[in-house]
Design goal:
The complex is a heterodimer of chains A (297) and B (193). By secondary structure, chain A is α+β, with helices and mostly antiparallel strands. Chain A folds into two domains: 109 residues, no CATH class; 186 residues, OB fold (Dihydrolipoamide Acetyltransferase, E2P). Helix content of chain A is 31%, strand content 17%. Chain A contains twelve helices and twelve strands. Chain A has a seven-stranded antiparallel sheet. Chain A has a three-stranded antiparallel sheet with strand order 6-8-9. Chain A has a two-stranded antiparallel sheet with strand order 1-2. Chain A is elongated, with a radius of gyration of 22 Å. The termini of chain A are far apart. The relative contact order of chain A is 0.13. Chain B is α/β, with parallel strands linked by helices and 193 residues long. Chain B contains five helices and nine strands. In chain B, the strands form two sheets. In chain B, strands 2-1-5-9-8 form a five-stranded mixed sheet, sandwiched between helices. Chain B has a four-stranded mixed sheet with strand order 3-4-6-7. At the A-B interface, helix 2, helix 5, strand 10, helix 7 and strand 11 of A face helix 1, strand 2, helix 3 and helix 5 of B.
């Protein structure tokens, strides 16, 4: 069916900010993306490509794009969260021949969310995946195929809480704003609400956590995912999250804060080496749930 | 931004497509597609609405024959994805079952599910929207699971456990047990090679 190449726009679930890159480039006055920023399968992009190809002989396309986009030359993957928000296009939006674009596409096709673990940065022994966004409350967000965003609790948060006894998951269709509590984890009568990294509607939940809450401790970034969110303000929300090296630095700072709280000695924060324990709360229960776990999550 | 060349046909396409058969709420389709992607961890697309084939209608029963619909999805319309799931509001059945929540051929390329009987409880009272959507996800996962050659499972709350009633459906959860997950990954690896 001819329609298989074009993804539908689903009313009420799409990004609030979704200007097509051609609109952003001011080549067309109004055009909103209806293809999850996947220009390679977009019919509109194909048509525009042909049009530009015709005009290319008359005027240098690269020069024209550079002129029009001087204000905002961001990579298309930065718009979907597949690349850091600051990533600029260095290839005049010729994605078909751009090595960076090909590399990211290859990574997506390898689909490390499907069968294998992501690649991690090491932040004082805590794992921070390279292509995940981290919220200040230790929720993570990963932008996936179709613009969907997977959400969970990061390695630091999991080690801090330790053995989770049960989860309270949101209902499908629930709408959250950034930093609202979106799911609750409980341990020994204590509860902690994990804040949503972004604004959107819950479209999938991981009920495996109801039967096996420990999965989130052992696989915080893969099998321990908590929900999928259909984002509503993706681009602006991602600006408020840490990514890549920035995320690793944030977790390092949190690890140092935790160590200085536990050791009650600021000098101890400079310690290095070893692997973080897997159950911080369990090891320091006298500090209390509120003054340990809730200081971070 | 030119169209890429020399890419395999499946590049950047979902492995599973969700097709609304007639009018189906956009939230239902979105929840089905996102939950399939979220739980199975494979890319999923949504296709445009298609009319349910009229030759599937069984006048004497005022229901649609799920087997005919599956054949239509698999053979009578082109699709680039590995598997297709049709979602309809119509009541489905097959020649020997009074109704079905969904149906698929083992290892086939298409499956179909119906929302028709998921709105109410055993006594006919309407259930909450959350419970309805939860049921929809379980049926969708279960039927797509069959297309990956996963048989009915006997693990407590695995989504591949057989469910003959709404009570059965409500008592399981929306995930694959480790064995079914292994079968799924093996089937995916084999299909992608």
């Amino acid at each position: 069916m001819a329609t298989t190449e074009k993804r539908q726009t689903i009313t009420g679930f799409n990004f609030a900010e979704k200007e097509c890159i051609w609109m952003r480039a001011k080549v067309v006055p109004v055009k909103y993306c209806d293809n999850a920023f996947d220009c390679t399968t977009c019919a509109f992009d194909t048509v525009m490509g042909r049009k530009i190809a015709r005009e290319e002989e008359a005027a240098g396309w690269g020069t024209e794009v550079s002129r029009r986009l001087r204000a905002d030359l961001r990579c298309r993957h930065a718009l979907t969260g597949g690349a850091p928000a600051s990533k600029m296009c260095a290839h005049n939006y010729e994605c078909a021949t751009c090595p960076y674009d090909q590399m990211l596409d290859d990574m997506m096709q390898m689909d490390h969310t499907m069968f294998g673990p992501p690649q991690y940065l090491n932040a004082h022994g805590y794992r921070v995946p390279r292509d995940y966004y981290i919220h200040i409350g230790h929720g993570w967000a990963r932008v996936e195929y179709g613009g969907r965003v997977r959400v969970g609790l990061d390695d630091f948060g999991n080690r801090l809480v330790g053995t989770v006894s049960n989860f309270r998951l949101p209902s499908l269709g629930t709408r959250f704003k950034t930093s609202e509590e979106c799911f609750i984890l409980a341990r020994e009568g204590h509860e902690a609400g994990v804040r949503s990294p972004l604004t959107g509607v819950v479209t999938a939940v991981n009920q495996k956590l109801l039967d096996q809450p420990g999965v989130t401790n052992s696989e915080p970034y893969t099998g321990g995912w908590v929900m999928l969110i259909d984002p509503m303000e993706l681009r602006s929300d991602l600006k408020g999250l840490a990514f890549g090296i920035e995320a690793a630095r944030f977790v390092e700072a949190e690890a140092e804060r935790l160590l200085s709280m536990i050791a009650d000695d600021p000098v101890a924060a400079a310690a290095a080496g070893g692997e973080p324990i897997t159950d911080v709360y369990g090891a320091f229960k006298d500090m209390g749930w509120d003054s340990l776990v809730k200081k971070f999550i | 931004m030119k169209k890429k060349k020399e890419q395999p046909p499946s590049a950047n396409k979902g492995l599973i497509s969700v097709v609304p058969l007639g009018k189906v709420g956009p939230d239902v389709i979105r929840v089905v597609s996102d939950s399939l992607q979220g739980i199975l961890r494979v890319p999923v697309d949504v296709e445009e609405e298609t009319i349910i084939p009229q030759d599937a209608f069984m006048e004497g029963r005022n229901q649609y024959n799920a087997m005919t619909v599956i054949k239509f999805l698999a053979n009578d319309r082109p699709h680039k994805s590995l598997k297709v799931l049709g979602v309809t509001q119509k009541d489905l059945c097959n020649p020997i079952l009074t109704y079905v929540f969904g149906e698929a051929y083992m290892g086939g390329s298409a499956a179909v599910m119906s929302c028709h009987r998921l709105y109410t409880d055993q006594t006919g009272e309407p259930v909450s929207r959350e419970q309805f959507l939860d049921r929809v996800v379980k049926v969708a996962l279960h039927e797509i699971g069959h297309t990956f050659n996963i048989a009915h499972c006997h693990t407590d709350r695995c989504v591949m456990r057989a469910s003959n009633s709404l009570m059965d459906l409500d008592s399981k959860l929306n995930y694959l047990c480790p064995y079914c997950e292994l079968f799924l990954f093996d089937a995916l690896r084999a299909a992608l090679q």
